[in-house]
Fold this protein.
Amino acid sequence: MTKNQLIEVLAKKVHLPKSATREVVDTMLDVMRTSVATGEKVVLSGFGTFLLRKRAPRRGRNPQTGEPMQISARKTPGFTAGKSFKKLVK
């Protein structure tokens, strides 16, 4: 499902115009992005948790030359599915 498809389905379910629904979805995603980027957890009960994960520096290998190299520490967004979401997917 794409973002546009999600907006169409939501607009029909809540009886709002697509433009208003798009604004709500865009605002929600923007708030979630900003919160996770600043290190705050976003918990959607029954769905899951979005959080910022920190990856430690590690040794890797250059795939072209085969030489060992150092991969620096970084932050990545993460998602953990909630219990009821996992159960639904099974």
